[in-house]
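U., I forgot to send this yesterday:
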Amino acid sequence: MTYTLRSALIPVEDSYATVDVQIEGDRIAAIGASLPTVGTAIDAENKLLLPGFVNGHAHSVQFWQRGLIPQLPLELWLADVFDTSPTELEQTYLGALGTAISTLLSGGTCVMDHLYVIPGQELESIAAASRAYKEVGIRAFIAPLIQDMPFVSGYPEGVKTLPHQPYHQSTDELLALMEAIVAQSHAPEDGIQIAVGPTGFHRCSDALFEGCRDLSDRHNLCRHIHLLETKAQKMLAQERYGGSAVKHLQQLGFLDHRTSLAHSIWLDAADIEVLAETKSTVVHNALSNLRLGSGIAPVLKYLQAGVNVAFGCDGAASNDGQDMLEAIKIGSLLHNVTDPDYKHWITPRKAVEMASIGGFTGVNLADQVGSLTVGKQADLVLYDLKNLSLLPRTDPIKLLILGRPNAAVDSVWVRGQQVFADGTLKTVDTSHFTQTVFNYGEVYSKPQYKTIHQVEAHYRRVMGLAECGDA
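Result:
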């Protein structure tokens, strides 16, 4: 398809310009004033045009756990997550559908889905999520979340103290599974890419990291993990490696320009230097970090050191939504309290840059997409500047990032295809989707959590908290 966007407002330096934009095939063909109309003319007057954002870290299946899990620290919250994880392939499909729709409605055109797969149905799980993303028309990187160590290995002193069984899949079995997933579902030409997704050092062996590294090299896959999300993980790194988890991952050769690291909260100055040296990306998930009490990532220090930083929503079990604009706002303003020098604070325009080109840098596509540049792929979003939440007519980007935009997205193009127009999704029947999801939840019931009772006392002891039941 070919489009000409008429009279769109775009940011230029510290101001704005009104331009026409031509889209031919999947590319931005021209940007300028008074361009001839080619293809379908789109009235973009009084609309802000920005590149699409990247939801740099999500767990789509957690769509079903929105509003479900109590406020707990990660290590206990995760026990409740595992006890309530969906087990049906249709839920995997619908969770990816919901994640894609929510991301699009908040300005995102790409998602990194660190996907929980159903045991014994791993290939089918990937296929279900892939089908959903293709139907919606969003870009997706699917990183199957894998581990080869038991649940208790994620706790300091967990393996030597808590009862456990070996993990049910061996390292070799997991790597063979990943090869099969790549063969089945890696389809960059369709906007769907497989990434390697070992959950993190806390539940993954060196052999699994090395195998994923090699798989990434063979197929040029992105690499995506959780990194030092909590103080407990910092303690665990010291216990396991006698020092830095970041340095250890560097020694394994896992960190490079294709690597994105979710959270990255408990890093020191030496760790930050490693990230800058290896050109790794940090994905900042401020909302989940606050909900779980994990801490505040040193994002201003990352930026000052030249580390690429993107934004993510994280899973809906720790965010209770997938709103990119909300994630960007909180992820920007939060750091005003971490540095008294306001010259270091993240401006709204810097936040847009981090969410777009920063996000696409994290998935190794910055040379192809992520900015309003002729020749790049057309992942574009129009925002309606007559929407009440973007009024009065002060500064559109400040209103978008610092305000509370409500249904402000007017149109979205992904790889040159218009998937959202005039406030309506063109690819999927959203009313049928919402009714289907509603029908899954006919009865509101409290889940039965079991795993937390097996680990809570241990967690409180190693973290220096009062024993359960103590005042």
